[in-house]
Every structure is written in C-alpha cells, then in structure tokens.
Specification:
The protein is mainly alpha-helical. The protein has helices at residues 14-17, 24-36, 57-65, 88-99, 112-121, 126-135, 139-148, 162-178, 191-195, 197-205, 220-225, 238-259, 274-288, 316-319, 330-337, 358-363, 379-391, and strands at 40-41, 69-74, 82-86, 157-161, 209-212, 215-219, 303-307, 325-329, 341-343, 350-352. The protein folds into two domains: 14-225, no CATH class; 269-391, no CATH class. The chain has a three-stranded antiparallel sheet. A three-stranded antiparallel sheet has the order 4-6-5. The chain is elongated, with a radius of gyration of 25 Å.
Length: 395
C-alpha cells in the first residue's frame, strides 16, 4: 500500500477527505451562509433542505477537509448541533462572492459547467483561481497525487475507468486511515460511488479532469503545475459597475428583510452583517481608487472602509452607502474612528485634535495641510462629515 499523508495532527478525519454529495454549487452556497454566520452542522444529517439553517452533513464534512470551514461552539440547547466558522481560506472565497454581489442561489445539484457559466456571468471567475490555491494545499490533493503516482507520469493526460478510480482511491485511503479494509457490498451505488464524485466535481471545476463515456481524463500538466487563469480578471466597464450596484442593492434588501432595516433583528449572536461591510468597501474603492485617501498607501491589506457616522447608528442601507465612508489606511482609520482627526465638512481640510502632540502627529503621518479631494466632497458626504465634526471629533 502507498504511504499517504498523515492527518493525526491536522484536526480532520478520513470522512473529511472523501465525502458527499458535495456539489460545487452547494459548497459556494454554504460558504455564503457560513460567512453570514448562520450555517450549522449536525453530524450525520442527510436532510438537504437547510431546515433551521442546518446543512447537509456530508457537504460540510468535505468543506472541513478542504479547509474552508471549521466547527465552532455547540448551539445553545443542543447536544450535537454546531455553529460553523469560515477559515481564512474560506473567507477569501466568501469575499469574492460578496464583492460581486452574489447571493446563495446556486443550484445544489448543478454541474461544474453550470457553476462556471454562472460565475462568468457575475464577473466572479477569479473564484476558480482562489479555489485552486486552496485546493492545492489540502491533504486530499496531496493524496490524489500519491494515488495517481503523479511524479512518475510523463504524459500530459491519464485516462482511468471512472468506477475503478472511485473504488480504488476510496479503498486505499479507507484502509490507510481507518485500518479497516473497504469491501463493496451489493449491486447498487457503493460508498465510494456516493462520496468520491464530490472530488471529481471539484477536479472538473478546476479543469484538472473531466469525465466522459465511463472514464476519467486527468490533466496531468495541470495537476503538476496548476492552471491559474490570468484571464479571470474583473470587468470594470461602466455597464458592469451599474449592474454591480443593482446586485448590491438586492443583497442589501435581502439583509433588510432578514435582519430588519436597522440590522438589529436577533437571529443569532454570531450573525454579522459582513456582506454590507464588504459592499461598503467595494463601493469606496470604485468611487475614487484603492488607496488611502489621506496618505496614498495602496496595499489592500492595510486599507479599511471607515464609516463617518458610526455603523452601529446606521440602518443597513447607510452602512453600505459610500458617501458615509472614507477609504483610509489602518493608522488613519484609527485616528478618525477615535475622533482624534476629522475633516472640515465644507472644505475637506483635516482637523487635528489638540490632544495629539507634535511627535504623535509626525509618527502618525498627519499634518494640517492634508485634505480630502474636492471630488469626494459630495453634498451627502458633507452632511455625514458634519455629524462627525459635531459628535466624534475631540478638539
């Protein structure tokens, strides 16, 4: 038997490596639900109706193996229902879905071609690149390469009988990880036949393989080197921007219906209106550019969407309204949110609190000659800035 990757210290089990059904459309829906803070997991649950926000157990098990979600605390009053939380890898995909105003509308049983077509229509094909990056770090990808003996294949394509592949990889991994031989029983769908197709769908989604006439055609070049498609870039035409606002409004309407227009309707203590926040940041970046509007820093990891009027005091629509915001670096966001700086609502000129010493100002890269550009000074933003001048700024 081949030696596969040990999982003892990885926090996962064999059932997380090959589990299903877990169609790619359902995985994307569950990523959105988990990002919204509502996806729950009950081990062994086969009901796929999403009743009480409980997902299909087999799909969530596979997502755990892919490193997209992890189990959180037990739901109050339950002994075996868990909250789920996105991992950093899952958050990357969630952010793209939200930035492109995509709601959990993927057909659960959709095939990879349908999902790719949907993502293309919604300007979100870059999800495929992120999925590839995530998948290549997983244990199941490494085990697949070991099973295929990838290092010793010198052709660009490998063809295997689909049934033999499913039974073979499931049998080897089952025996390696559980120390129990896998024996196919009966003449119906086998355990391998139920659980391995999730892996095959993901391979097809990434263009690592495709199935035809009972065979699996593996793209050996892609498996070895990856595909990363540079053509999966964002469309930034004016027509696209208009459609983005329309889609974003649909998401905000959905959030308003779900949590109330003030965003405070109690559903769960873990529900966060992160979609509204991500829409808010994207609108600010589209308005004037992806850099700190005060000092010019361009690294997106250092940029924050700063609310002028506190988000906690805003309804859902004002939370995502770009005129209620400024795109600032982390340092200037902290100064602004703390009321140590503000911007004069008529001119956009920076206002600096007297509590900041000369040394503080120098170290914080803040000076009295800074100001917001005139094009940012819309009437609505001036009104929000006046609120900040009157209610947050410490003179």
């Amino acid at each position: 038997m081949k030696k596969y990757v040990f999982i003892d210290k990885e926090g996962i089990e064999f059932k997380n490596l090959l589990s299903g059904p877990a169609q790619i459309g359902r995985i994307l829906n569950y990523i959105i639900y988990a990002g919204d803070g509502i996806l729950k997991h009950r081990p062994g649950n086969r009901n796929d109706t999403f009743a009480n926000n409980i997902g299909s157990a087999w799909c969530i098990e596979f997502m755990i193996g892919l490193g997209l979600v992890r189990l959180d605390s037990i739901v109050d009053g339950s002994s075996n229902v868990y909250y789920t939380r996105l991992t950093p890898q899952g958050m990357k995909i969630y952010n793209i879905l939200v930035e492109n105003a995509i709601m959990p509308v993927f057909e659960h049983k959709s095939n990879p071609k349908y999902t790719l077509k949907f993502l293309k229509e919604h300007n979100a094909l870059n999800i495929v690149n992120v999925f590839e990056e995530v998948f290549r770090q997983t244990i199941i990808f490494k085990d697949l390469c070991i099973f295929l003996d990838l290092d010793n294949i010198d052709t660009d394509e490998l063809v295997m009988n689909k049934d033999k592949f499913m039974e073979g990889i499931f049998s080897e991994l089952c025996e390696f990880y559980t120390k129990t031989p896998y024996i196919r029983k009966g003449h119906g769908a086998s355990t391998a036949g139920n659980r391995v197709p999730s892996l095959l769908q993901l391979l097809e989604f990434l263009k690592y393989a495709y199935c035809k006439d009972g065979d699996v055609y593996f793209n050996i070049r892609a498996l070895k080197k990856g595909i990363f498609n540079k053509t999966y870039r964002l469309d930034i035409t004016e027509r696209h921007l208009i459609s983005e606002y329309e889609k974003e409004e649909k998401i905000l309407n959905r959030l308003a219906d779900k949590y109330g227009i003030e965003g405070n309707r109690t559903v769960s203590t873990r529900v966060r209106l992160s979609q509204a926040q991500l829409i808010f940041k994207e609108r600010l970046k589209r308005e004037y550019g992806s850099f700190c509007w005060l000092c010019g820093i361009k690294n997106d990891n250092l940029l924050l969407a700063s609310h002028i009027k506190d988000s906690s005091l805003c309804n859902i629509y004002d939370k995502a309204k770009n005129n209620n915001g400024l795109l600032l670096c982390a340092q200037h966001d902290k100064l602004f949110d703390s009321g140590l700086i503000s911007f004069e609502y008529e001119t956009g000129k920076v206002m600096i609190s007297k509590s900041l010493t000369k040394d503080d100002r120098k170290l914080s890269n803040i000076s009295e000659d800074m100001r917001l550009q005139d094009k940012l000074m819309t009437d609505e933003r001036r009104n929000f800035l006046k609120w900040h001048n009157d209610n947050k700024f410490f003179d």
